[in-house]
Structure formats: structure tokens, C-alpha cells
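Progress narrative, work stream C.
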Amino acid sequence: MEVLDPRFRHYMLQEIHAQPRTALEAVAQYLSPENRTKSIAGIALPEEQVQKLERVSIIASGTSRHAGMVGEFMLERLARLPVKVDFASQYCYRDPLTEHNELTVLLSQSGTTADTLSALRQAKSKNARTIAICNVQDAPLAREADGVLYTHAGIEVSVAATKSFTAQLIALYALGVHLGHTRRSLSAQETRDHMNDLMALPEKIEATLACAAAVEVGAKKMKDAKSFLFLGRDISYPIALEGALKLKETSYIHAEGMPTGEMKHGPNAMVDEHLPVVMVLTRDATDPQSTLRWERSVALLEEIAERGVQVTAIVCQDDVATVAKHANSVFAVPAASTLLLPVLEIIPLQLLAYHIAVLKGMNVDSPRNLSKSVTVE
């Protein structure tokens, strides 16, 4: 078992702060030192099979499913393949249809998750090619899949997944670049650019952790709330879901995540001064579509702030001054490309869940009724 560093009160906090190192170790495994293009050992997909792929299914549960939802954006935009994300517990029972040239990607931190193993066997019985994304060497999921992509996150003691989640995002991004390079949906220059972005990621995670003190202060403002709403647009929507889940797991506070664009389709009626709202408001300033999405989200922020709603915003560093005019708390992350921003966005939300739980006196590392690996369906 990992030793708790005396600098940290709990394993969860230690594992949040370990993410620059685990990201560095993962990136070192995925990148080819010779040409920084595509070097992912173990996925067992010959080039001709990759070129014939027609769609991808991603199957997982809990936090791993949220990673898979981010992966949907990554793989569709990098590899230009249609992607569907499913709950492992649903996939097992609905007799899914599979295509002849379909790739099924199954995510599990432990590799022993019962419903994900059942889904793997279901997919293999229908002749889908399977890849496991897993954190544990030689776990059942890794042994039974056709190929495996290890996340290299190291031992994670806290039940609430933190470093294993960001490691899954990095693995999915690396897989997307590999598929895109092999399928020629990415040019050689685009592949190099994506790999350079990945190489810069550990340093950006380290910079993101500089928000830790501000998050601790912000948590004190919110610790007595009975319910939270987390909002994210586009690829940030799964991060809103994961932020809500982290709060539920650690603090036992009801929290819901939803797409920012869905607010005016009903949920807006719920929002008042008694419901804190956490908005993921990052953008890739080099991407006009990202900026357009950001502007629409800021307009919603202004609207709900006028009602006296307590708003917490996750923003890129250059947008702090603009958003701080309307939000009660603002936590900054470095600039990054659209597809890698989720890796940074989740870190303040992990810290927020941790500090609220500690303030409420909860057992942060071992929440009630939960275990690290769900081995029964």
C-alpha cells in the first residue's frame, strides 16, 4: 500500500497532487521518442484494421464512463469515427448491435469491474475488436481484451478516483491521435502538434494545482449548501458530471451535472440563491467555435448572477478578470487545446469536493457504501 506523505492529510489530496507526475509517466509511455507520433504498445490493432474501422463503442461505469464521454469528443475529432458511449451495466442486457468493423473500448480503473467484464464478453461474442484501458497490470479486463492500453497512474488508495481519471483521459487522447494518424485523418504536422500538446500537459497540470489555496477558501463559502448544479458545454459537459459525482461521493451532498445549453430547457426554474452553481467556463482562444461556446456560457453566467445565485467558475487564466465580475469564486487553469482542457478542468473540481468533505468531517478516503472496485453486478 502507498505511504501517506506527511504533507497531506488524506490519500485523496495526495493523489490529486500526484497528477503532474502520473501524467508525465503516461506521456513518456505513449510517445515515440524518435518521432513523437504514434507509439502505443499493446493495443493489438494492425494498421489495416484501424483503416477499416467504421465506428467505436466506449463502455464503462461511474467515473470511467465520464472519461469515456470525454473520449467520445476526442476520438470523433481526431480519428473521424462515429463514437457511442454506453453504461457497462446497460450494455450487458440490451443485446447491442455491433458492426463488422467496430472497435469496443472498455474502461475500468481496477480491471475487475463486474459489469464492464460482462460487457467485454458480450462484445467479443459479437466479434467486435476490444481494447481495455486499465490501471492494473494483468487484471482480468486486460487479459481478456484483444489489446490493452495501461494508464500508468500507479496505486490509488482513495475510493474517489482522481489521478486514475486524468490518466484515462490522457490514454484516450493518445489513442485518438494514434487512430487519427493511422487513418490519415490527421496530417503528419497535426500529429506532431497533438503530441507536443501532450508533452506540455504535465507542466500545465502542475500550474493548475496553484489554485489549491483559492479552492480551499471557496469551499468554506459552499460547505453548508444542500444541493449543487454543475454546468459544462461541449467536451466540458462530462467534466461537470464528474465534478458532481466527486462531490456526491465525498460529501454526500446532492449534486447534478448537465450541459450548459440545457439550462433554458427547464432546469433554469430551479436556480436561485439557495442552489450554488459551478460552471466550467474554459475556452481554447485559438478556436473560434470554442470562443463562441464560451461567450454563450458567459451570457448565462451574467443572467443567473443577477438573481443572486452563488456561482463558482473554472476559467482559463486570461479570462479571470472578465468572469470575476459575475462569479463569487473563480479558479484558473492554464491555456490549452480544446481536447486537453478537460484534464485541467477537473482538478479544481476534485479539490473542491475534497475540501467540502473535509470541512463537513467526512471520511474522505473511504466514503460510506462505496468500494474501490465493484466486483458484483
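Work stream C, second folded protein:
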Amino acid sequence: MNIKQKIGQMFMARGLDRFSDETMRLIKEGLIGGVHVNSKNTKQEIEEIQKLSSTSLFIAADMETGFASGNFGGTSMPWQMALGAVGSEEQAYECSAAIAREARDFGVNYVFGPVVDIANEPRHPYANLRCLSSDKKEIVRLGSAIIKAFQDNGMQVAAKHYPGAGRFTNDNHIETIILSCSKRQFENDELYVYRELIKNAGLNGIMSGHVAVKEIDCDKPATVSRKLIQYLDTFNFKGILITDSLAMKGITMKYPHEELLPMSIAAGHDIILGDYNISPEYQLEIMHKAYKDGIISEERINHSVAKIIKAKEFIFNTQPPSPELKKHRKLSHEINRKSITLTGDKKCLKDIKKETLFIVSKELDNEIIGAEMAMSNSHADIVKLIKNKFPENKVLEISTSPKPSEIEATMHHALNCDSIVFIGYSLIFCYKGTADFSRSLLAMTRGMKNKIKVFVVMGNPFAARELPELPCILYGYHGANAESAITETLCGELIPSGTLPVNY
């Protein structure tokens, strides 16, 4: 390879749609090492770009709820927090192996996961469901099983988000994140997870987060902080380090791309995950200029390229078993059933009579955008299931942020019922700002607390901390068949066996 092609191996192109003509040309010229695909891309397109490229390509995707969205068409799997509630290393492995086999069959060979952040901040706007647990040792135990499953099936892994993105209350898609914990606390918690995963699972890849640690390197996020990246060297990490998306405004508002890309490589990253808002060719020009200006040496480039070539050889020399979709769907349903968690008085489940009123909050109202579209019918699914299981009961659907007229009408219905089963959605999305229940929904819950016998938290379990004292809370971790499992529990067909994986 010439120097431009070597630099190209260190760049992963992104898009919000199909591959652009520019990206296709760069692939043909051997100037791009990988692409981050989305659910709009097809298996045929991926096969075409692999044939077009003069070198093997990394084909990466997010698979946090399975390889299921859009054209991918794989099995919808539970969120990682459901795996935490089940607590089985065997099922964590089986779930991840199934995802890996479906991805490899489609042509995808690089997984942006697992999420190994510690769920240690109840107010976090989007971590929670993506995490395994609040317990760092559980994260290592289950995370090791997930990583081994992916790697055993020929996947490059990007465990994320180093150094740890579970401790803050704001969204780094929007603003800069700085952890203000002590150095000792940071080393005992966040760094513990990565040190143990590298040792126990032979972790072959990490994705850094746009997260700074005040006591280590002031306000410099890991994306550009050599001090934070050096910890990985002390852990004997030999794998590939990739940045998180450089399209995220929390980092681009702080550093212009002309500084950000060279600084990221200088900090120790092997691959830049490009900004889909900017020409990939321009981003490659920035990287090449950094080489010509002496900011990045050829020796440094060769070090990363050698690791990348080795990883690609591993991928293309590993042929995992073909996916068994029927078996995978059965596994998904089994995990969700085992994950359902109950706190409080289980006898309340036997008190559901025909006079019981069901209230279901619509999780997204009219704010559905982009990837959220795929999840927008969850409340409709559970309403249909409830009406099927409880045909004589009244079911009310309300907004996640009910207006005064909705609150008035709902509470009027509540006057004439014996008891209430309230199903509240608390889902996570970037840019949403919170994964908690709205102020108006909580106020209404407090007003009806004497009649609520069972409250079902669908999604972020931390949201339950703001509820009034209630006799029984059920937790369903959303995704896949969670609605079906919750309905089975409410009608007595399923005894909940999950363990709450978070502390609040």
C-alpha cells in the first residue's frame, strides 16, 4: 500500500443512507478501510463493495437489540439490561452468538458493542437499557461471555464507551461530558471493567467515548487524550481502538475536524469513525495533511495498519455456522420471559379482576424520528395483547406527557374502577434528554396511587425511583417480546424470575 492507502485503512466511512458515489470511488481506489452500514443497506450492496475494494473491508453496524432493523431482517433481541436481569453467562453467550451469525451471514463483520458502561447514574438520559448492570463485576462476568461469543464467530468487537459513559446526566451527542469523580473511584470502577475484560475475554477491540475525566486530563475527552488512552497500554491491550462517531456535536463543538482527526490518531486511535455530515474525501485529506506536516509519523500509521490487517485476516479466516432464525427467535422470547422482574407484593398480580382499569402510556407521542420509527408501535402491541387476555377490562391509552384534559379524563375513569394496572413507557433515545417519566405522568400517578395495584415499567428501570410508594412494580426491559412476556405475567401464565440489575 502507498501512504494514502495506509491512511485509508484507518478511516471508516459513514452515511445515513446508501453509499454515496464518492464513497464508492474511494473504496474502488483502496482509500477506505471500512464502512459503517445502516439498516437501509442491503446484503447485495455489501457484497458489491467487498468485491469493488482492493483490500478487505471492515463492515460495521450497531447491534444493541440484535441484527434486526430494516434490510438486516435478523432476530429482534432484548436490550442488554434484560441479559443483566437474567444473569446467565450461557444465555448472554447464546444471544450474542446468534447476533454474530446473522450479521456475518449478511456480510457484516464488525460490531459496535457490547456496551460495558456501568449503570451508576439513575438520571442518565440514554445509557440504562443499553447497560448490563450497576454492578461492575456482573458487567465483567456477562460482558466476557458476550465478547467471547462475538469473537468466536469471527467478529471484530468495539466494547464501548471507554473510559466509561454511565456516570453523567447529560447527552454527549449534544454537549461535552466530563466525569468529576475522584481518580481512585475512576480507577476502581470504570477502569476495572476494561482491565478485567481484556484479561478475561481477550478483548480484540474498544470504542472510545467523547468522555473526559477531570482528575486525569482536565477537560480532554478520551477521543483526544493520550493520558486516558495510555491506561489501555498498561492493561496490555493489543486490539483495535476506534473513536466513537465524529458526527457527535459534543466533540465537534469543542474541536474543529482539522484538529480533531489528527489529535485522535495522536492519542492512540487506530481507526477514525468519520462524520457523515462531511465529505469522506475531505476527512482523508485532513489525515494525510497531518502525516505530511509531521503530526503523525509513518511508523505510527504502520503500527495501526498492521493491527487492522491482522484483524481482517482473523475475520476472513473464520467461518461461523449459518444462522438458525427459528432457534434465535425462541431464544429471544426465552430471555425476555426470564428477565421480567417483580418488586413488592406478588399477590397483587392475583387481584386483577374485570373491574381493573388498564392504563397504557404511548412511549413517543408525536416525537418519532429516524430509528425511533421501528419502536413506535410497542404500546399498540401491548394494548392488543391486554385486550386479548382481558377482554372484559377497559384499556385507556394516554400520552407520555399527558395534557390537563387527558389527566382529567383518565382520573375520572379511575373513580369508577376497583384497581389500576398502569403500564408506563420510559424509553431511551439520543437527543431526548431524559429516560424518566414526565412530570405530568408522575403527578397523575401520585393522584391515583391508592388505586394502582401494579405498575409496569417498560424500559428504563431507573424511572421507577420517582414513582410514589406502590404495592407492586413489574419491570420489562423493552424490545423483542417484552410486551408479550409482561402480558403473560399479568394474567398469571408466567412467574417473574428476573433480578433487578440496577440500584436506585
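Residues 365-376 have pLDDT under 50 and may be disordered. No further action is required on this item.
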